[in-house]
Amino acid sequence: MQKHFAPKVLLLAALVAGSAPSAFGTLVFTPTFTAGFNSSFGANAAAAQTAWIAAANVFATNFTDNIHINIIVDGVAGTSVFGQSSTFLNSTTYANLRAKVVADAKSADDATAIGAGGSMTAADPVIGTHTWWVSRAEAKALGLIPDDLSNDGTTTFGAGNAFTFSGPIAPGTFDFQGVAAHEISEVMGRLGISGGTIGSSVNSYSLIDDFAYTGAGVRGLTTGPGINFSIDNGTTLLKLFNNSLVNGLDTRDWAPGTNDAFNQFSNSGVVNPVSAVDLRNMDVIGYDLVAVGVPEPATLSLLALGFGLMAAVKKLRRS
Asked: Which residue numbers in the chain have pLDDT < 70?
């Protein structure tokens, strides 16, 4: 059995909910588990909350950004939704975005990406009128906006789906932690806009689109076959992106292959981990990766949430 992520939808929304504690270190995640989440998951609500926190903790222990990422965690009955994220966006120019990426560079991959022969070129790779976007959480990580305790997005899950919340993934069920990590990473900014329209802004792109290549020096700024994640201007193709011309759905999820939390398609009965290449992906789109062998400590935090407007939504649904 397999499920996959649906394409993004744009909306305006004011998201408000009660708060609940959790998260974890220098990079602090604060989930707000709604009444709808708890009622939908019923007897599994506590296990689902713990699984969501475990997924967020993967990012909190691997990145050192001194910011708060505040996420409403909702649930709905049935299987019409598998996993879904709503991500608040901020627009900027390429010049400003690159300047922030350069100022934030810390890892070897960051240095490659902004250096000579890197993917984050000095010149804007898009010709003509266009806009670059980052998620609200990503904007905080890059210093485009100050850190705050306002809501950065929402993740929603269909409680009627067969999930395993911890331990070995049972046959015919899906790895809830992997699904949660997929949605959390989208709120963090792992979303491809790829020449789409955001509200009234046509020809829009996100930071991850700058790392899309079909080969050495050949960008893949839209979608199609053979577009890969690359930090060195396409010289090294690290992982294949989903071909949405064939599959529909999202352009910057991974294509089918090795089980991975960032894949477009999710198989049942398998663990979908956050892989090393996933962490490299998040590193170059604005987050500060912990040096190998130096994990960050975990702590607990209780924070208040606010609300916002412009959002991009992704869904995970039955195939």
From this structure: 1-25, 292-319
What would the two tokens of residue 298 be? 């975990």
Residues 173-207 have pLDDT tens digits of 999 999 999 999 999 999 989 888 887 889 999 99
Among 273, 52, 287, residue whose Cα is nearest residue 190: 287
In this predicted structure, what is the pLDDT of residue 244?
85
Count of the separate structural domains present in the chain:
1
Q: What is the pLDDT of residue 195?
A: 87
Tell me what pLDDT residue 316 has: 46
- Please provide the DSSP assignment of 253-290 as one string: SBPSSS--TTBSEEETTS-----HHHHHHHHHTT--BP
User: How far is 245 from 253, CA to CA, in rounded Å?
Assistant: 13
Distance in angstroms (rounded) separating the CA atoms of residues 56 and 193:
23
For residues 305 and 315, give the distance between their C-alpha atoms in angstroms, rounded to a whole number: 23
pLDDT for the residue numbered 1: 63
> Could you please report the per-residue DSSP string of 159-228?
TTS-EE-SSSPPTT-EEHHHHHHHHHHHHTT----TTEEETTEEEEEEGGGGGEEEETTEE--S--TT-E
Report the pLDDT value the prediction gives residue 286, as an integer from 0 to 100: 97
Q: Give the domain extent around 147.
A: 2-318
Token pair of 209 as six digits: 């689109």
pLDDT given at position 198: 87
Q: Are strands 239-240 and 228-229 parallel, antiparallel or unpaired?
A: antiparallel
What contacts 24+ positions apart, CB below 8 Å, involve 272-275?
272/175, 272/177, 272/178, 272/179, 272/181, 272/182, 273/178, 274/55, 274/58, 274/59, 274/62, 274/178, 274/181, 274/185
Q: What are phi and psi of 234, to 5 degrees?
A: 85, 0
pLDDT of residue 308: 25
- The strand pair at 218-219 and 212-215 is best described as antiparallel
